[in-house]
Every structure is written in C-alpha cells, then in structure tokens.
Design brief:
The protein is 25% helix and 25% strand. It contains 19 helices and 32 strands. Among the domains are: 180 residues, Aldehyde oxidase/xanthine dehydrogenase, a/b hammerhead (Aldehyde Oxidoreductase, domain 3, Alpha-Beta Complex), CATH 3.90.1170.50; 199 residues, Aldehyde oxidase/xanthine dehydrogenase, molybdopterin binding domain (Aldehyde Oxidoreductase, domain 4); 140 residues, Aldehyde oxidase/xanthine dehydrogenase, molybdopterin binding domain (Aldehyde Oxidoreductase, domain 4), CATH 3.30.365.
Length: 795
C-alpha cells in the first residue's frame, strides 16, 4: 500500500514457554491501545486519499420520485457522486443469508437512514456539504411497524416478490422466518399443573454501542482490483458479498483487518465496505470513510426488540409441567441474521430447565423499523428475560425460594432439550446457582461505611445528590441462562489457521496467520498461548488478519476460541509432527528415545515425556521452515424441523448465573446496582484474566439494557429519536457495580482443551437478575426493558 502511513502490522510477543494455555498472559496489543499507538480503522491514512460520505434517507418508507445530484457534482473538491444507477454490475443487493439489502436505495426506501447516494471529495466537510446539496423527492408510503400492521389483511409488503428459501413456510410475506418447537403435549400436561402463571414481556431495541465507529480505507490496485482495510467481524463473509457488486473476482478484492474498536455483532453485516470500494474504483484514488456517531446508529443493525408471551405450569411440589410461548422479534427492513436469531430464540426459549412438554413459536418480522441482526446473546437474551421472570412468578406463587425452585428444575448433563437434542457435556446449572447464592452479600447501607456523611456515589442518583438514603430500599434477584456456542442448524462452521515455524535471529519463532477478526475479545493473545503450548517456543508472531489465508468465520456466537483456537491447535500439532519427523531424520540414530518415547516440544527443545532433552529446536530446524495451513470443524449439526423443531441443532451450550443487589429510591424511581455477582462454567480457562474480563463485560451490557439502554423508534413515523450517546445511554464506570466472578471449569470433552465459549452467556442472565432485584425491592411486576423511573413511580 504505497503512500500509506498507518497500516496493520504484526503483533510479536515474547514470553516464557510456560506462558501458554492456562496462564494470564497480557495482550500483545494492550500497551499499544492504552498509549494511543494502536492503529484503529479510523486511523488509516493515505497521502492522496479522498473522503467518502453517505447520504441517507430522511423517511422510513417512501417512494423515491427523483434524485438530482447536479449541485453536488458541481461543488469544488468533489470527485464523484454515485446513486443506484451508477452501480457497475447487475448485482445490486447483498446480505448475510438473504440478499435483500440494496447497496444504494432504488425505487423506494424501507427504513429511516437507508443509504441513497455516495460522495467522494478531498475533505470530509466538503463531502458532507456536497451530499446536503443532493435533492431527493420522496412520496411517503404506508408504514409497517409491528406484527399487527405487518400481517393485517392488505398490509403493504416490505419486500415484494420474495423468492428466498424461507418464503415457503411463513404464513405471511412480512414474516422473515418462523420456527416452531413442539415436544410432548403441552395442553395435556397443563392439566397436571397445580399452578399456572403467564406473562407478556417486552424487550427494547439495544444498540451494540461500540466505541470505534464504522470506518475503513479502500485503495484501488494497479491490477484493477482493490485493497480494503476495514474494521469487521468476518473478512471472508464481507468478501463474498463485496466482490459480486464490484464485478471483480474475489482474488482481486484484498481485505485486511484494521483495528476494531468493539463489535458485539454490529459489524457482522456490511456498512461502508462496498461504498468505499465503489468510490475508490470510480475515482482511481484511495477513499476513506469514517462514520460519526449519528451515522453509526444508522450504519449497523441492532438487537431485535421483542414481544414474548409465556405460560408455565408447575405442580405443588415445584416441578415444571409445561411451557407455552410465542416470541415475536422485529427484524426491521432487511433480513440480516434474523433467521438464525429466530432459531436461537425458539430452541433456547425453555431456558436451562427440564420441561418435557413444550409448545413454542418464534417469528421475525419485516417492518419499516431499523434493521436488526446480530448482537451478543443473539435471540437467547430476549428469551432469558422472559423465562426468568416466569420462574420468579412461579416460585412466589408456590411460596418457594426462587433459587431452590430453579435448582429443582435445573437441567444437567443428559437432559433432553425441547428440540430432542441431548445435552452431552456438563450442565452445572444447579451448582452455579448454589455458588452465587453462597457469595457474601454487600453490606447494608454501604453509603454510610465511610463515616457519618453519606457517600452519594453509592446511592441512587449518584452525584446528582438526590437522596442521602431517604426512601431507599434494597432488593436481591437471581437469574440463570443458557446460550449455544458456535454456528448451528447445519451450517458448515469451520476455521482456518496457517502456522510457520523457523529460526530467526538464532531462536525458534512461530508465526500464526488467521483471518480471525480481533474485535477486543483477546483472540490474538490466546493464539500465541496455544502456539507456545504446542510448539514449545517463546517468540510468537501474530500475522495481521486478511483474506490471503482461509476463512476463520465470524467473531461471533462465542465461537472464535473454540473454532480458530481449535484450528491453531490442530495446525500447531501438525507442525510439531513435521518438526519431530525432521529431528528423527537428523538425530534419530543418536538416541533410542527418538523412536520409542513420546516426544514433546518444550522450552525451545525436543524432550521426552520424562523431561530428557534430545535436541535444540534451532539445531533441528537449522535453515528450514515448516509452513502448514489447515482447517478445523466442530461436530456436525442439523437444521431444526420446520414443523416440530426437532433436531440436533447446536454444538455446545454455555451457562452463567447472576445475583443482582440493587438500591431503589422509591420516591424518584432511581436505581443503583450495587453488585452483580456471576458464576459461570467456562470448561477450561485458557487465559483466566481474559475470561474474567469477558464475563464482566457481558454482564455490564446486560446491566445496560436492564436500566438504561434503548433505541427509541417513533411508532408513528418509524424514525429513530435518539441516535446519539447524549440520548442513548450506556453504563459508565459510575454505573458499573462490583462484579465478583466465580469461574467453574468443567471440561467439554468434545472441545479443544475442553473449553466452552464464554462471551455471550453473561449477557443473558444479568438483565433478568437486575429486574428481579428491583421487583424484590419494590414489589411491582416489571415486564419491560429497560426499567425507567416512571415505571417505578407510576408517574
């Protein structure tokens, strides 16, 4: 990339060879990030680059009558203005599964903020001002905003002429996907119930709120191709969608991951990737696009808002008899990951409990609301909020302790899921609940701990000084959740790793090259740890992720340590065998152990399993390099039956439990979360420090949607009302409570090192635990997230 001043570089970390699996090694990118030296995608720079800007629709559903770009084109400093008519091929849509999303709107817009035109100019402000000169005439169309308007007789179709593979089994074209789960006879089982409780629950639209906005740099190549440096979650998925739109073979679209400032699912879909490439190829110059925060709210999908209806029954001794539930997810204007979210929501709707008779239905709608797709927890979050509220209702009606009631019905290894799939690895649900209940509670009235004067930071309202303890009551709540790990329902989920071992500067060095998107989860740290463990070297270099190596799949579904970690492990093992074969060929005649003993690589040497040193790796390798690229796949899964929902759809489950302690100002409706304790089974903690960080981060996101986070969409106009961090609130350090973590390690024999995906499970149960604690404090039935002051005061 000639002329560039900032590009992704290798991350090389030296360390003791015992800084392998199980050690809390520090991140190789950590110091660079905290000192401001790390190159995020928004820092990418080229000396002669242009700046791109996207003009977005001001209407949620409208016909595009005309577009006039003449004034924009006449603006000094503008190099290009593109609309739908300027797209270079007949491929004008893209999508993760269903290619229903236009690169630029054509004929009509389907949601507020949809891309309509692109501008490239020599300065970002010039591009913005030129875009403002584009004149678009809209004719408003009827809105689809909820299930009633989506499925009413004569309802306007969000997508006319659907021909995707889901259309044959949905009851209406405005339903993206439907998945029932039927097992046993819920109606008959209900007759055995001594107690039946039901509830309707509403889960708000949450934003991923990653701090690094969408950004990237596209550089036209001399071969007619393009080099794209971008922050994303899945390089090869992006490539598959980008290349056809550009009319280029995939080998001419060369993608490199630049620094990612968080993702949480919001970078799984395309944002500015195609737009930057189009402008670069049209102008023949590098083009950089960086969204501001306002644009970012429109530039990526959000968590599906949901309405959930649940009915549970139980016998008088506390055993669950049946479950009926219906889950309606609003997918917004385009499909994104909605079909997979429906699969998760339905198959995990029962929660981590034994219920033999279930009747479940989940659907995702097309609407004119903002598109929704992947976000941490992926369908299981919404379901967990509802089924955990139901568990508390049942326990209260039965006069049972809410934790003991959950333990009585907890699944375990061997339990049959409602889909008919057996749980074939540890499922310590009851033990996790026991552990969080056994943790010591924080002291009462802790705002007085420092002395006679109240420390208002520990009170609801904080530094706004709204109370010194008057009207403040405490509540404690519990919740537990279940999340699948990896891609499910028959998807060919695999990952690739290339590992090279050679001698550099007189010592053995391993280089690990994958296309894994490092989005903050710490995969680059774990890959180096795996290489040290398997190859016995100190120096490990992590090559920048790009598409010059095979796909690593998405950094989502809590899958990367399992999948790409598994690929690195397998490839390292194959490299090790090549090294040992080389050693046997060179030195086998000098010691019988070369032929008879189990050999290992440790401390830069070849050793027997008894610790005897046979050779230095430097001597074995000499001038040779061993370079292998291999794929890794998990056990196959299968699609859920479209009528009964039966099928072995998931590869692994993860579990976490939370206890929330809150203080509530009953007069003002303000909530202070004092503590969110977590117990989670991680299978094997490959890096204990990173494990705790992931669990605490997921817990905090769950806290956010419990008490503050929600994208507000005007039901009359389908327009977003709060696209900024001024009005969309996320937890700060002052809002984040103490989060003690109890890590349980029960190995899954089917997974590399016995590990279990950890990133999403804590996001599930933290939200209902906080809601349960607030209910416990004030006695109100709270069935909506987030909880706002007016919900608590009735004002």
């Amino acid at each position: 990339m000639a002329g560039a001043t900032r590009t992704p570089t290798n991350l090389t970390q030296g360390g003791k060879t015992d800084a392998g699996i199980g050690a809390s090694t520090l991140r190789p990118d950590g110091t660079l990030k905290v000192t401001g030296e790390f190159a995020y995608s928004s820092d990418m720079w080229h000396e002669d680059m242009l700046w791109g800007f996207t003009l977005r629709s001001t209407e949620a559903h409208a016909e595009i009558v005309s577009i006039d770009t003449s004034e924009a084109l006449a603006t000094s400093g503008v190099y290009a203005v593109l609309t739908y008519d300027d797209l270079p091929t007949d491929v004008k849509n893209y999508g993760l599964e269903i290619q229903d999303t236009p690169v630029l709107a054509h004929g009509k817009v389907r949601h507020h903020g949809e891309p309509v035109a692109l501008v490239a100019a020599d300065h970002p402000e010039t591009a913005r001002r030129a875009a403002a000169k584009i004149k678009i005439e809209y004719r408003q169309l009827p809105l689809v905003t909820d299930e009633a308007s989506a499925t009413a007789e004569g309802a306007p179709l969000v997508h006319e002429g659907r021909d995707d593979h889901h259309i044959g089994h949905v009851p209406h074209p405005n339903i993206v996907h439907r998945q029932p789960i039927i097992r046993g006879d819920a109606d008959e089982a209900a007759k055995k119930a001594d107690v039946i409780v039901s509830g309707e629950y509403v889960f708000g639209m949450q934003d991923q709120a990653f701090l690094g906005p969408e950004s990237g740099l596209a550089v036209p190549g001399e071969d007619g191709g393009v080099d794209l440096y971008v922050a994303t979650q899945w390089l090869h998925s992006d490539l598959r969608q980008i290349a056809p739109v550009l009319g280029l073979p995939e080998e001419k679209v060369r993608m490199t991951l630049s620094g990612v400032g968080g993702a949480f699912g919001g970078r799984e879909d395309l944002s500015m990737q195609i737009h930057a490439c189009l402008l670069a190829l049209r102008t023949g110059k590098p083009v950089k696009i960086v969204y501001n925060r306002f644009e970012s709210f429109f530039g990526h999908v959000h968590r599906h808002p949901a309405k959930l209806w649940y009915e549970h029954g139980a016998t008088k001794d506390g055993k669950l008899t049946h479950l009926k539930c219906r889950i309606v997810l609003d997918g917004g204007a385009y499909a994104s990951a909605s079909p997979a979210v429906v699969g998760n929501a339905s198959s995990l709707a029962v929660g981590p409990y034994v219920v033999d008779d279930v009747e479940i239905e989940a659907i995702a709608l097309y609407s004119n609301n903002p598109p929704c797709g992947a976000m941490r927890g992926f369908g299981a979050v919404q379901a967990c909020f509802a089924y955990e509220a139901q568990m508390d209702k049942l326990a209260k009606k039965l006069g049972m302790d809410p934790v003991e009631f959950r333990q009585l019905n907890a699944m375990e290894q061997g339990t049959i899921m409602p889909t008919g799939q057996p749980v074939d690895s540890p499922a310590p649900v009851a033990e996790l609940l026991r552990r969080i209940k056994a943790m010591p509670l924080p002291p009462e009235q802790q705002w007085l701990a420092a002395g006679e004067g109240a420390d208002v930071r520990a009170l609801p309202g904080g530094l706004s000084n709204t109370t010194h303890g008057e009207g403040v009551v405490r509540g404690v709540g519990y919740a537990v959740g279940i999340k699948n790990v990896g891609f499910s329902e028959g998807f060919d989920d695999y990952s690739t790793a290339r590992v090279r071992m050679e001698v550099l500067a007189g010592e053995p060095v391993a280089t690990v090259h994958t296309a894994m998107a490092e989005v903050g989860q710490g995969g680059v740290t774990v890959h180096a740890q795996i290489a040290r463990t398997e190859l016995g070297v100190e120096q490990v270099t992590i090559h920048p992720a790009d598409t010059q190596v095979g796909s690593a799949g998405s950094t989502s579904a809590s899958r990367q340590t399992y999948m790409t970690g598994g690929a690195v492990k397998n490839t390292c093992e194959a490299v090790r065998e090549k090294v040992l074969a080389l050693g046997r060929a060179k030195f086998g005649t000098y010691h019988p152990a070369w032929a008879t003993a189990e050999l290992l690589l440790e401390g830069g040497k070849v050793v027997t399993d008894g610790g005897e040193v046979l050779a230095d790796l430097v001597d074995v390798l000499e001038g040779e390099a061993i370079d292998l690229e291999l794929e890794f796949r998990h056990r196959p899964t299968e699609a859920f039956d479209l009528v009964t929902g039966q099928g072995n759809g998931h590869v692994q489950y993860s579990f976490a439990a939370h206890r929330a302690v809150v203080e509530v100002d009953t007069e003002l409706g303000l909530v202070k979360v004092i503590e969110l304790a977590v117990a989670q089974d991680v299978g094997k903690a490959l890096n204990p420090l990173s494990v705790v960080g992931q669990i605490q981060g997921g817990t905090t996101q769950g806290l956010g949607v419990a008490v503050m986070e929600e994208i507000i969409v005007d039901p009359k106009t389908a327009k977003v009302r709060n696209p900024s961090f001024t009005d969309y609130l996320i937890p700060t350090i002052l809002d984040t409570p103490s989060i003690p973590v109890d890590v349980l390690e029960l190995a899954d024999e089917h997974a590399p090192y016995g590990l279990r995906g950890i990133g999403e499970a804590p996001t599930l149960s933290s939200t209902p635990a906080v809601l349960a604690a607030i209910r416990n404090a004030i006695g109100l039935e709270l069935n909506k997230t987030p909880v706002r002051p007016e919900h608590l005061t009735g004002t």
